[in-house]
Design goal:
Blueprint lengths: L2 H15 L3 E2 H7 L7 H18 L9 E2 L9 H9 L10 H18 L4
Helix pairs in contact: 1-3, 1-5, 2-3, 3-4
Length: 115
């Protein structure tokens, strides 16, 4: 299984369980070798974000949490969302929090009936 397929499957499972995960924990779960495991993971997450944007789906990467980010994804998530035309607000604050909450809510709803 490719990294992208394994990542997509892991994120789908998280969405079904209505869970989020830290980047480090996700990299370990996927057995991405380091050093550079987080960079490899974020590159794969950005690829999935591009796929999600093209298919008009919520961003699966919204299920990731950055260290010291209060449960929100790392700034790179918001920067990628900007590049993909889905987010225009600041990287921190109420707009960012609302964007993540909306993306996660849409993901949880999308995967609610899948087992």
């Amino acid at each position: 299984m490719t990294l992208l397929a394994a990542l997509a499957a892991e994120l789908a499972g998280l969405a079904r369980r209505r869970e989020t995960i830290g980047y480090g924990a996700l990299a370990r779960r996927l057995a991405i070798p380091g050093p550079g495991s987080i960079a490899t993971l974020t590159g794969a997450l950005e690829t999935l974000m591009a796929e999600d944007a093209a298919a008009d789906r919520p961003f699966r990467a919204a299920l990731c949490e950055g260290k010291l980010r209060g449960g929100r994804p790392a700034p790179g998530f918001f920067e990628a969302a900007r590049r993909l035309g889905r987010f225009a607000g600041p990287l921190d604050g109420p707009e960012a929090e609302a964007f993540v909450a909306d993306e996660r809510g849409a993901l949880f709803a999308r995967y609610a009936d899948q087992t």
